[in-house]
Amino acid sequence: MRNSKNKLAKNIATVIAMTGMIGSMTMPAFADTTTTSSSTSTTISIPVTVDGQSSSITIPTPPASFFVNGSLQVTTATVMVDGVSVPVDGVTLGMSSTGQEGVTAILGTAYVTNVTAAASSNNVAMGKTVTLTSSFTDGSGAAVATLPSGDSVSYTVTAPTGATSSDYTLSGNTFTATMAGTYTITPVVTEIGGTVTGTPMTVVVTGATVSSVSAVNGTVTVNFANALSATPSLSDFAVTQSINGGTATTVTPTAITMNSAMTQATLTVPTVSATATAQSVVDSVAYNGGTAMSASAFSIVPDISVSNSSVSFPSNGTSLSNSSVINLTATIENASGNAITGLSGSDFTLMVGSQSVTASAAVYIGSGEYQVSFVPQTLSAGTGLTLTLNVDKTAVGESFGYSVVAGSATNTTAAFPTSTVLNEGAPYTVTLTPLDAQGNPTTISGTVGVTLGTGSEAVTVTGATMSGPV
Fold this sequence. Notes:
mainly beta; five-stranded mixed sheet; 4% helix
């Protein structure tokens, strides 16, 4: 009989052990019904039959006040089966209440059996923090509003390829990544008896997109397509510099400032020193390992001597017009009388009065001499104008007495009489205002055709004549 008792105890222990398996049961491992008040304690007796031998498991039933958030966590306890002590450790006992203060059922099953998580956003910009929220259900599938005392929820993170734990921060229920990619986040509940691993979710972290780059000597400006959540570090930027089309070399920024909208970063970089030859400089920037984007070239021009430089302008009194070429010859030298080479069209600006025109071409002839061409497009008509040639914002020559004449009448307007009554044989006057593309008054000549009405009702007026200053 002793062996039978041991066998019975062994099997009962197996039954009890199953009650601690987290998430493995959807129904209570053992359940019985009794009633107890909050001030008294009774027992719950569970009949067990093993190999034809019947016995009972007796479990004390504590008052409802013992339960916290619907569960009683058993850390160290035993039950007696026919004088054999069977340990019941690590079991969570749940309770179901009738709405009164009594305990009506003791359930030997894990209180939380499933957990799911949600993020405040599943697609965020790099560096932006998301908040994680978990939801729980018990063995019967009912929602658990609050974790039982002693239970806790945590998260595991699977980072994208190439990312390490230093590329993201998981603090409590907040997650922030500084490297782009898809992160898998899994909620885990720890409770007495084991853990519950929930359903994984993903958070896609997108890198900040550079929309444009501009540069001047000593400064590189990087514009982002979307606002950053924090000021990036200097090491996030890879800056290279090419001079006169040569091999790009690495440039190390020394400072960074962000605009108030967090969409523009201004990097301070070492300046390029002037040489005897003009230099065309192109800066390129890659952000956080992204594709490099280049700024437009800027020039470093040697100190220009106005007294040693000269310009050959068109003859005084020449009339200029839009879309017509203006050719100049300029000799550019420094204070020592040495020729300045390497200038391009973007280094030359012609001022026509107060209007600016950038050179369309600059061809180096030799000995500091350049043939420079300008093709104005938007000049307003005027007389008594001064031409000034600037090289890298330095005025090297000027000439007086020029005029700009209007172009062809491409913007002519017509004003019709307000009367809607036409009398046969009576004159009908239409006032024309001929203007060129820039709105300058101009003239027209030849014949003019007039059509009244539109579509099928259009009537062509014959014998129209033109008179007046047009």
